[in-house]
Specification:
Glutathione S-transferase Yfyf (Class Pi), Chain A, domain 2; single chain; 8 helices
Length: about 230
């Protein structure tokens, strides 16, 4: 059985939803961010970078959200096989989500790491414009590749989780994403919420009844989001 090292409403949520959607058994291990457990020696032995999540597997631990999703897709046939015609598209969009969209969104979450205090407003303006362009590309991809961008599938889950975070974080920043402007992503968010496993995951992490179509700040029963 796998062990998912998680914190509520962190990148581990993406992996958790994929595992739940595929019916893959796993257990969770809380990484308590309130006490910086991700910086402790036990967690750093699993992931020297200290980022969440880590998935412990019979082959050993694996970190980095994109790497975990690719490993799960290949191990459990959750994505196109290497010889499949749509494998290249799957890889392209998985790496776009991981390396470009998620990376840019993280800069919005932690602006003080990337801009001086007097440049924070310009930083948000530039990065939010970039993210809106990314979401436009993802909306077109979801329209053209519906099987790859399906609810519970790795690309679909990754995409709607990024839209959730864009609507919520950082809590004190101006809101800049209206999901109604991206009809295929909105349809994907509704489809993910309609999945039987989504309310279970939402309750476990305190995400509210509409975690993707009407995101609200989480109230997790354990652990800390930040």
């Amino acid at each position: 059985m796998y062990t998912l090292h998680y914190a509520p409403d962190n990148a581990s949520l993406i992996v958790r939803l994929v595992l739940d959607g595929a019916g893959i058994p796993y257990r969770t291990a809380l990484v308590n961010r309130a006490v910086r457990a991700q910086d402790g020696p036990a967690y750093r032995r699993l992931n020297p970078a200290g980022l969440i999540p880590v998935l412990e597997t019979p082959a050993g631990p694996i970190a980095e959200t994109g790497a975990i999703l690719l490993w799960l897709a290949d191990t459990h046939r959750l994505g196109p096989a290497p010889e499949a015609a749509d494998r290249l598209a799957f890889l392209q969009w998985l790496f776009f989500l991981s390396n470009t969209a998620h990376a840019d969104l993280r800069q919005i979450f932690h602006p003080h790491h990337h801009a001086p205090a007097d440049g924070l407003a310009a930083h948000l303006e530039i990065l939010s414009a970039r993210m809106l362009a990314h979401f436009a590309l993802l909306d077109a991809a979801a329209a053209g590749l519906p099987r790859l961008f399906a609810a519970a599938a790795p690309l679909g889950v990754y995409t709607v989780t990024l839209t959730r975070w864009a609507a919520l974080y950082p809590p004190d920043a101006p809101r800049w994403l209206d999901l109604a402007g991206f009809p295929h992503l909105l349809a994907l968010a509704r489809a993910q919420e309609a999945r039987v496993e989504t309310p279970v995951t939402a309750r476990a992490e305190g995400l509210g009844p509409h975690p993707f179509t009407r995101p609200e700040p989480p109230t997790p029963p354990e652990g800390s989001v930040l």
